[in-house]
User: Fold this.
Amino acid sequence: MGFFRPVANRLLNRLRVSPIIPSITKELVIPSLVLRCPDIIDDQMLFDSLGFYRAPKALDTMVRPALLREIGVRNIELSDYISMLRYYCSESSTCSKNIAIILYCIYNDHAHELSETHKFSIKSLHCLPLIGKSELVSIDSCSPKYIFMIQEGIKLPALPGLLLIDKVRLGFPSNVSDNHNVVNTALLSLGVKMATMQELVSHHVLPLLESSQSYDLDESQLIDCTTFLKDQLAIRPSLCSIEKLREILPIRATLQGEVRNIKAKDSYFYYRDCELVMKFPSISWLCLSNCYKVWYYFLLTIIFNILF
Assistant:
């Protein structure tokens, strides 16, 4: 091809500066404004964040990849994904629907290229939605506290002080089969912790119930915490001893006409009118809230002094 090389070079130079590739707007654009990227990255997402156009799918079947590279069409790179993250993770932004998609692409296609410098850049970005917080946060800004995520299907009560990723707002990509595994791997690699059930119970649920804050929990919050403990203890009895629970668990009850959260220890409860309540008026009987009506056996394991 030596004789024709000058001609080929002139043709390639002309192709590089000519609008020859169709874009999302149906207009033709120059090759250097076109990126080849995974199907999970849509045209609008790419254009909004980087100002590039997505290479049409038909291009790969019609033109050799080597020729595409020659005229300026390139594959999306790790640096492009990090730039996309910066765009979607501005401090003022509350939108996170594309963040999981970008993390998926980084860790699915470029994990081997990630350096500590890259990770530091990602951890400094306000890219994570947390339950109970409207603004996105960065992993570094929450230090020395850890940001946690939990396994699918676990319904947690509201726990003050627990920084928990809001996976609904994070928007896990739904059009790939291993999305959760890859995104979870990405988050763990960046310093997010997968909370164990023992950690949640020992360091968050029990301290809340043991603290003075437990007296101020409304009925819904208290029942959520108690339901969570009841369900988890049925699966893992070793999470907390019944003696410990009996010592700290507040019970929703009425005392002298006022609904309160009252510690179960050394208190006497009844659920509905009972002859013994009338026979022993000297005892300060506490009337249980209706919210406990289906918890007969659970309450019996915690409260000795209870009449149903």
